[in-house]
Amino acid sequence: MRTTLVSLARSAWKGPYFTAFPNLAEALQTNTAIRTSARACTILPNFVGLKLLVHNGKEYIPVNITAQMVGHKLGEFSPTRKRFSYKFSLCFSFLLPSMIFQIFATQRASKNR
């Protein structure tokens, strides 16, 4: 198996990959969003200020292009996976209300003495 060093980026002599958006000038003037599924498209300096709707495989994610995004790919700004978050297990979700009640009951009992 071959190891990859950093990433298999595009060769410098080939230049950036971008798709031609036919209504680019019109979208800049009217401030409308352009729908695209070209996630591999490199963001160019003339895209700054543009609103794009980038497809993540399920839906279109709105992306506002800024100067810091130039040189990156469109796909970097529309995640394809949901964020992971831990959830309470069923065991703890049933025990939690009774534990809270016991804590408040003992505090009330100690105040009354």
Automatic annotation (TrEMBL):
Q: Which GO terms describe its molecular function?
A: RNA binding; structural constituent of ribosome
Query: Superkingdom of the source?
Result: Eukaryota
Q: What is this protein called?
A: Small ribosomal subunit protein uS19m
Species: Puccinia striiformis
Pfam families under this entry?
Ribosomal_S19
Question: Per the UniProt record, which residue ranges are transmembrane?
Answer: 84-105
GO annotation, cellular component aspect: mitochondrial small ribosomal subunit
Q: Does the keyword Metal-binding apply?
A: no
